[in-house]
Specification:
The complex is a heterodimer of chains A (599) and B (392). Chain A has 599 residues and is an alpha+beta fold. Chain A folds into four domains: 153 residues, no CATH class; 98 residues, 2-Layer Sandwich (Beta-Lactamase); 74 residues, Helix Hairpins (Orthogonal Bundle), CATH 1.10.287; 160 residues, Heat Shock Protein 90. Chain A contains 14 helices and 19 strands. Chain A has a five-stranded antiparallel sheet, with helices on both faces. Chain A has a five-stranded antiparallel sheet with strand order 7-6-10-9-8. Chain A has a five-stranded mixed sheet with strand order 13-15-16-18-17, covered by helices on one side. In chain A, helix 4 packs parallel to helix 5, helix 10 crosses helix 14 and helix 12 runs antiparallel to helix 14. Chain A is rod-shaped, with a radius of gyration of 64 Å. Chain A starts with 7 loop residues before the first helix and ends with a strand. The relative contact order of chain A is 0.04. By secondary structure, chain B is α/β, with parallel strands linked by helices. Helices cover 43% and strands 18% of the residues of chain B. Chain B contains twelve helices and 14 strands. In chain B, the strands form four sheets. In chain B, strands 2-1-3-4-5 form a five-stranded parallel sheet, with helices on both faces. In chain B, helix 2 packs parallel to helix 11. Classes of the chains: A alpha+beta (599), B alpha/beta (392). Chains A and B meet through helix 2 of A and helix 5 of B.
């Protein structure tokens, strides 16, 4: 059942109208009663006075008759009686009353009333003491009577009650007129209220609902209200535009459906994600229709369309599940999240998770590869180390002599095994780095100690190639760093310099720049092409491949990649400067004081 | 500033009112215009001319005295030719055109009845100097003032005298105009109270060429008193019929006509004993009555009739009312007319609240020995009435 909602006019005018009607009816009743009472009283007293006057008139003729001593002459008395009747007639006309004279139980004379009425009045007056009797034509009369003894007359003085009824009619007409005037006034008030109160409210409400700024002008209060609503609307519109911008700039697709599952809000990303045509997405579009488009397009493969749509609609209606992923036939993946809206309906966000899913697969593959390399390195290292050790035992001149050809073979085996081991070590190291298993363990040391260690390790190879190994500006400094990592970096840089330099020298220099240690390793080798400088730090990249020169060394191409990773673990980096046929300079920068951390 | 503007408007409005009403006052102070319509050229020519002359006589006398309240009188007399519709047109012009300040009534009950509503609606008090039909005063008007006794009372004198003489039966013959019909009704009503039996009650067409058949039926009815309710011509016709059939009732009464001075010469019967109601006689019955008659005859060379006396009396009454009111303003004049109780050349004037004349008594005259004698009321009787023995 619809709840009754009173209008503003009813609230304002209703009680007033009811009050006016009640008071009006009470006044009407009171006035009528008062009029009736007063009229009855006045009519009665007036008629009584008039009757006395009429009797006095009659008396005057009797007195005259008596004065003229003609009482005994019955015929002469007729003249006086005639005079009396004439006087009563004049009196009745002048006073607007009727007079009926009854003699010997019949009407002797009437004036001011019809003969028939006179008979009726006389008959009723004879039987009743009522003051009001009916005439022959059903007219009501007020009647007062008196006996007039001298001539044995009963004089009935008659007043048409129609006068009183006319008064009542007049009062009623005044009241009806007043009621009509009141109704007209109420109608005018309703019109005025409608014009000056209701219409502005509706106008402001219409403007508000249509989204345009209310522009009412007129009554001050409504103008103020209109202005304030306009201010609020402008704020809301600004916020709405902001939200719209945010909505449209989101990378996720968003669509809001109302409680009847009609589209109410959506952003461009939603249309783009699903590649919807413009005409499909419109205000009020049914969710099922949009889903039908998806199904018909084949987003769900070969399925029963209606069954699929029902499933999707039901899932949306019940928000179950609130999150799910869709792997579409085009290879893309969409994550769908749903939540109920406060006023009914639901909001759905669509996120393209194709890249994330691909990345996850890549990460998993990388992890598997790392695990594979680590396992393989460990498994390879063990037999290689055994081969090297065995070769060293055979080559060691303790108690027997080995044939020279066999010795060469053994030495080649040992050399190749050692090289193989170094490659396995590099792989293992890189696997550790990629697995984040390399820990930085800082220990106090000095700059010279670390450089000395690196130079000692490299010196034999430099000597073999006839290269000078120069340590410039031997400055020392206290370090708090991971000496293993730092030594590996320096030895790698020095061994590379020696390896790729055929003549000249390899120079190492160290500088202290504030809290940063800068160690540079320069060679006079073949140099590296400028556009290949960054490639040399990538895994499995060889210097010779990048420089375009003939490969002279062996390895996996992981040395500089590992060195840069170690440098980063130490909080620093490695830079390179090179010029073809002049040489290269690798510069390591790292903080002198290193807090212990792990990568 | 606002109040200054408002006061300015108010001042201008007051000045305008003073100008408008001041102008009217100035006009009124010059002359009082009184309108009256009379059938000067129609069937009522004789009484109408009498009234015209009397009004003019009164006007001249008043103006020679300095006018009413100092204002001279203008009489605007128009001819209605004795036709009611023309009379109505004239009075409409009087009261709606603003051509006159006051009006006198036209001659005849019929024309008076026709104009009464228009005059009453316009609130012009009007002295009905030519009407006596009761019906006019039963319409609830408030501005029509009767001067003559109501027609229904015209036969009061003859009925009383007949009763006293012991007559018992009446034959009523009446013309079918309103005045005559009212006379018949009054006779019919009051006669039985005096033990006078109505043995014939019959109307006839106005201006009938002869009444011999009616008179025969009256004779057959055994009536002792024959009442002819009509005008001069019908009275003569009845008299002629009586002579023709050789019947002399105990009493023969005819309204109006026999009271005229010319009756005697018209009948030419020394033994004529006709009764009639006389509204006025040029004697000393009422103040200035004889003087008016003398002045009228001197001025116009003919004797004044009661119509002339009535018109003159209407002037006297209006003059008294204006003097009593102290104004020519119509509502004041109307109230003064209601409260006046004066004697004029026509006798006493006083009306009730309906405007009916209630104080005047008509006289009953009888031709005796070729002379008109007043036989009732007794107070002014010149000779007692004479009733014949009646011939079958």
């Amino acid at each position: 059942m619809k709840r009754f909602r009173p209008s503003l006019q009813l609230v304002i005018l209703g009680p007033a109208l009811v009050l006016i009607l009640i008071v009006g009816l009470m006044l009407y009743s009171l006035v009528l009663r008062t009029i009736s009472d007063n009229a009855n009283q006045n009519i009665h007293s007036t008629l009584a006075a008039l009757l006395r006057s009429a009797v006095t008139i009659a008396d005057s003729e009797v007195d005259r008759q008596n004065r003229e001593s003609l009482v005994s002459n019955a015929d002469a008395a007729l003249t006086y009686q005639l005079n009396t009747r004439i006087k009563l007639e004049d009196f009745a006309r002048d006073q607007h009353v009727g007079i009926v004279v009854v003699a010997d139980h019949s009407v002797d004379f009437e004036t001011g009333v019809s003969e028939a009425d006179a008979k009726q009045i006389a008959a009723e007056a004879a039987m009743s003491t009522r003051e009001q009797v009916s005439g022959a034509d059903s007219l009501s009369y007020y009647v007062v009577s008196a006996r007039f003894a001298p001539w044995n007359w009963q004089i009935l003085l008659v007043k048409d009650a129609g006068d009183f009824q006319a008064l009542v009619r007049q009062v009623r007409q005044v009241y009806i007129g007043s009621a009509l005037a009141l109704l007209a006034a109420v109608a005018l008030m309703i019109l005025a209220l409608r014009q000056f109160l209701v219409r502005p409210i509706y106008q402001i409400a219409e403007d508000f609902s249509s989204g345009s700024t209310p522009s009412y002008s007129g009554i001050f209060e409504f103008e103020h209200l209109s202005t304030r609503i306009g201010d609020v609307m402008q704020t809301l519109q600004t916020k709405t535009r902001e939200l719209e911008t945010i909505l449209q700039s989101m990378s996720d697709g968003i669509a809001v459906f109302d409680q009847d599952m009609r589209l109410s809000v959506w952003n461009l990303q939603y249309a783009k994600l699903y590649r919807y045509p413009d005409q499909l997405l419109r205000q009020g579009a049914q969710f099922a229709d949009i889903m039908r488009y998806n199904v018909d397009r084949g987003d769900y493969g070969t399925v029963d369309p209606e069954e699929q749509i029902d499933t999707i609609v039901e899932r949306a209606r019940t928000i179950s599940p609130p999150r799910f992923e869709i792997d579409r036939t085009d290879g893309t993946s969409i994550e769908v999240r749903r939540a109920r809206m406060p006023g009914g309906g639901f909001v759905t966000t669509y996120t393209d998770i194709t890249y994330q899913k691909h990345s996850a697969r890549l990460v998993a593959a990388s992890e598997a590869k790392s695990r594979f390399l680590e396992n393989m390195s460990h498994d390879l290292r063990k037999p290689i180390t055994a081969v090297i050790e065995d070769c060293r035992l055979l080559l060691s001149p303790v108690d027997q002599k080995i044939d020279p050809p066999a010795q060469v073979v053994l030495e080649n085996i040992a050399s190749n095994a050692t090289h193989l081991l170094s490659m396995v070590d590099e792989l293992l190291e890189m696997a550790r780095i990629e697995a984040g298993q390399v820990a930085v363990r800082a220990r106090p040391t000095t700059l010279q100690a670390v450089i000395n260690q690196a130079l000692r390790a490299t010196a034999p190879a430099a000597k073999t190639k006839g290269l000078q190994l120069i340590w410039e500006s031997r400055r020392d400094a206290d370090l708090l760093t991971d000496t293993r990592l730092l030594s590996r970096i320096l030895m790698n840089l020095l061994s590379n310099a020696v390896e790729y330099t055929t003549r000249g020298a390899v120079t190492i220099a160290a500088r202290l720049q504030g809290e940063t240690i800068e160690i540079s390793v320069s060679d006079t080798g073949r140099g590296i092409a400028r556009d290949k400088l960054e490639l040399i730090f990538q895994k499995f990249q060889r210097v010779d491949e990048t420089s375009g020169l003939t490969k002279s060394g062996v390895g996996l191409g992981l040395g500089l990649a590992i060195s840069r990773e170690f440098a980063k673990l130490l909080g620093g980096d490695i830079a390179v400067e090179s010029e073809l046929d002049v040489g290269s300079t690798f510069t390591l920068r790292f903080p002198a004081t290193q807090r212990g951390k792990s990568a | 500033m606002y109040w200054v503007t408002q006061m300015g408007i108010l001042l201008r409005a007051v000045l305008l009112l003073i100008f408008v009403f001041g102008s009217q006052g100035a006009l009124a102070s010059e002359r009082i215009r009184i309108g009256v319509s009379l059938g000067i050229t129609g069937q009522f020519k004789e009484p109408a001319v009498m009234q015209q002359r009397a009004y003019e006589q009164w006007r001249d006398e008043v103006n020679s005295r300095g006018g009413l309240l100092g204002h001279p009188i203008d009489l605007i007399i128009r001819d209605d030719e004795g036709i009611a519709q023309k009379g109505l047109t004239i009075y409409r012009d009087f009261v709606t055109g603003g051509n006159v300040d006051l009006v006198f009534g036209p001659y005849s009950s019929e024309i008076t009845a026709a104009v009464a509503k228009t005059v009453d609606t316009a609130d012009y008090p009007m002295l009905a100097a030519g009407a006596s039909a009761d019906e006019i005063w039963k319409q609830g008007y408030h501005n029509i003032f009767g001067m003559w006794t109501p027609a229904s009372r015209y036969t009061q004198g003859i009925l009383r005298q007949a009763h006293e003489a012991g007559l018992n039966s009446i034959a009523i013959l009446y013309a079918n105009d309103s005045f005559s019909t009212e006379i018949a009704a009054g006779t019919r009503k009051w006669g039985p109270y005096l033990k006078l039996k109505i043995v014939l009650d019959e109307g006839y067409a106005e201006n009938s060429p002869e009444l011999i058949d009616e008179i025969r039926r009256a004779q057959t009815s055994g009536a002792e008193l024959v009442v002819i309710a009509g005008h001069l011509n019908e009275a003569l016709l009845a008299k002629q019929a009586l002579r023709q059939i050789g019947w002399t009732p105990r009493a023969f009464f005819a309204t109006v006509g026999p009271a005229l001075p010319t009756w005697s010469s018209l009948v030419a019967d020394p033994a004529d004993a006709t009764f009639a109601t006389s509204i006025w006689e040029p004697n000393d019955s009422f103040p200035l009555s004889r003087e008016f008659a003398a002045a009228f005859e001197k001025r116009y060379g003919v004797a004044a009739s009661y119509h002339a006396a009535t018109a003159y009396a209407a002037g006297q009454i209006l003059e008294a009312a204006i003097n009593a009111a102290g104004s020519t303003e119509r509502s004041a004049v109307r109230e003064a007319l209601f409260s006046l109780d004066i004697y004029t050349v026509l006798g006493r004037f006083a009306v009730d609240r309906t405007g009916v004349q209630v104080k005047r008594l008509d006289m009953l005259i009888q031709w005796q020995d070729g002379r008109k004698e007043i036989v009732w009321p007794e107070e002014i009787r010149t000779r007692p009435p004479m009733f014949g023995s009646g011939t079958p």
